[in-house]
Amino acid sequence: MINEAVNCKYCQSDNVIKYGTYGGVQLYYCKDCGSKFKDDDTTFHMKTPANQVTSALNMWYEGMSIKAIARNLKQEHGNMPSTATIYEWIQKYTQYATDSIKDYKPTKIGDTWIADETVIEIDGNNVWLWDIMDNDTRFLLATRISRSRTTQDAQMLYDRAVKMAGKEPDKVITDKLASYLDVRYGKDTEHIRSGPFAVENNTQLIERFHSTLKQRTKVMRGLKNIQSAIDFMDGFFVHYNYLRPHTFLDDKTPAEVAGIDYPYQNWADIIREHKPSKPVVIEHQPRDKVKLPVVQVGRPQKRKRYRRKLPT
Known about the structure:
Blueprint: E1 16-22, E2 25-30, E3 36-38, H1 50-61, H2 66-77, H3 83-100, E4 112-122, E5 125-134, E6 140-146, H4 151-165, E7 171-174, E8 190-193, H5 204-216, H6 226-243, H7 254-257, H8 267-273
Parallel strand pairs: 4-7, 7-8
Antiparallel strand pairs: 1-2, 2-3, 4-5, 5-6
């Protein structure tokens, strides 16, 4: 029977039926989009309201540690989830966010790019964070983490940026690191090595970005390995480009200015869109047709032992 009082929380359809209970809570099933859901603000299989999960993700990518996030939720909502639970939220929705941007490419990238590298600390060890940004849109074209500062590292950064932008730039501005000298830039691309006090063609824009990023990467000291840091940077890439408005861009995101029509405005939209899998129906074979394995009952027979004959 159709339930007219409840609309689907994902597609807003009223073609919804009751679908049993889970933990004493009524579940519903949408016949239009195939989603199973609860009629409240919590996500499926979770007891915490979506707004608290959203706050946790925002706080994480704005630089708060997981322990600080737990204390903040306790003070504001009277709910203190474990640090393991918060980290599970971050991993789960960061993966969904990074998957959601795979088919989006900027269409209005400028012709001047700025590249820089900075050192960050992960579990007591120093690694290098490389970034390259479009000067006009502030869109972060590529980011990567490495243990070295070689020409190969700089080349990989540049190649990723070209792939993202779909073109070569007119100018690439870098600092005086020797690794940038032997990079294979575009045929018509000018490489400008900027000095620390240069008035024009300087790297101040991305250095300010790195200064901001370092405030956020303080939490990376708690990460145990470089893969965890890469996962963090993948999530920060989405947060910075697609979800965080910039004052310099008239409170628009770099993705908006770069011509990307991204459907989500914040982490709350991403969490709401992260639908549970459709229910799987398992067809059971009738009991009388199931062939059961033959099991021997009783004591097993003893093996015959043979004595090895000694040579005469």
